[in-house]
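pls design
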């Protein structure tokens, strides 16, 4: 049974790289049941104080995203320093004091706090992960978001592209498929039943191993972009098919697909490789804002290569076409962003 929803996968923050150092000792705290960032910092300081042979004065080096810093403020620093002093560790501004690197990183499900320092020839790292759902909304720089996916259609036909009919009274989908070696546009109702079929044979598209085409719904009709030409037609019949020559350069094909988060209106970009037709593909949904790219991505593995992604109809969702390598069918999934964990 295919899942309708997938949880988030965490991408490490760039300042958490001390975890990758060859010689280190790390202790990872499971997501803490804390109700504030200060509580998490207290726990992190307690864990730092237990590092063997770590005492005296240290110099804090704080790394965090600018947006995150603006949202969290500086109150947590006082809490962290006070807790360190209980463990006989003093914070100083002296340049020759050994550094204690503090990193605050956000992911869609957690706020990750880490502290690292070098003791002799080893790197000591302590980590506390806070559940975002337990933190006050005012302390979170980005609304918690998850990725949901739903299988909406599967067929033995070769599906080249899919377009949503969300603004149609009946809902449903429009599909661009190869059926009996002929390129055809299908209009489906909300149950997946074919309501209308329009042959595009007159456009003279030749079947290839890797067919390329993009379908855009236009209410009573649709537009199809094919290699070297663009065609428009009405769902009432193929006699209305009108094609014109078009240069299909890299800029002609569909631009990057974006989703808008219902939590805070932020943009998320859909990315997939799709180059290997013999392997499963990984869909990545990453924050659009440059300052948040290190915050994490939503990941969803598909049962085969991703053929197309289409989100031009509704900014809240997108359609992803994939080839299921196990069943041999082509499948259409609806991808949606939702609030919460």
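designed seq:
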């Amino acid at each position: 049974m295919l899942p309708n929803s997938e949880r988030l996968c965490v991408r490490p923050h760039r300042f958490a790289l001390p975890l990758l150092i060859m010689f280190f000792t790390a202790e990872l705290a499971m997501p803490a049941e804390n109700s504030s960032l200060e509580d998490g910092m207290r726990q992190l300081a307690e864990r730092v104080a237990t590092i063997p042979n770590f005492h005296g004065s240290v110099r804090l080096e704080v790394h965090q995203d600018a947006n995150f810093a603006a949202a969290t403020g500086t109150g947590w620093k006082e809490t962290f320093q006070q807790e360190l002093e209980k463990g006989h560790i003093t914070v100083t501004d002296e340049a020759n004091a050994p550094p204690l690197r503090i990193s605050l990183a956000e992911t869609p499900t957690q706020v990750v706090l880490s502290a690292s320092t070098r003791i002799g020839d080893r790197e000591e790292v302590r980590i506390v992960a806070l559940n975002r759902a337990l933190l006050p909304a005012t302390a979170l720089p980005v609304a918690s978001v998850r990725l949901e996916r739903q299988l909406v259609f599967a067929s033995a036909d070769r599906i080249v592209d899919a377009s949503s009919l969300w603004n149609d009274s009946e809902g449903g989908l429009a599909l661009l498929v190869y059926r009996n070696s002929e390129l055809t546009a299908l209009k489906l109702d909300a149950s997946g039943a074919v309501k209308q079929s329009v042959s595009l044979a007159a456009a003279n598209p030749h079947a290839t191993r890797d067919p390329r085409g993009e379908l855009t719904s236009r209410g009573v009709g649709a537009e199809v972009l094919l290699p070297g030409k663009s065609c428009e037609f009405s769902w009432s019949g193929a006699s209305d098919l009108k094609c014109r020559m078009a240069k299909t350069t890299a800029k002609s094909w569909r631009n990057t697909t974006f989703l808008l988060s219902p939590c805070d209106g932020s943009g998320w970009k859909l990315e997939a490789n799709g180059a290997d037709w013999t392997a499963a593909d990984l869909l990545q949904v990453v924050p659009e804002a440059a300052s948040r790219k290190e915050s994490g991505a939503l990941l969803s593995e598909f049962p085969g290569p991703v053929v197309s992604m289409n989100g031009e109809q509704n900014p809240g969702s997108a359609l992803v076409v994939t080839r299921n390598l196990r069943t041999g069918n082509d499948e259409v999934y609806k991808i949606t962003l939702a609030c919460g964990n």
